[in-house]
Hints:
Elements lengths: L1 H27 L4 H25 L2 H20 L9 H4 L7
Helix pairs in contact: 1-2, 1-3
Amino acid sequence: MFFLYLIFLSFVSFSVAILVYGTLLRLLGSESRLSRYAQLFLVPLTVIGYDFLTIVTRSYWVGAIPIGLVILLLGYYYLFKPQNKQLTQNEHQPKNKRK
């Protein structure tokens, strides 16, 4: 049972890291020095803090929240996000035409 709990915590850690990293990129961008330091310090601190919260509460529901949010985000991007894959007329034509 302990091994399954560790696997669950690894999924929780990954989900929290994805959510925090994406939020930091959205709020601060990716080029500034503040963004780099925030990514370096805030992502591990929030992952460790949320894992600690999950362990202390001993509830799977607390750990399932970030996993559920990542699943919802993936579902949103898969179902509702419009795709910009319309090619221009020049991109439809092959580059090397042999006659």
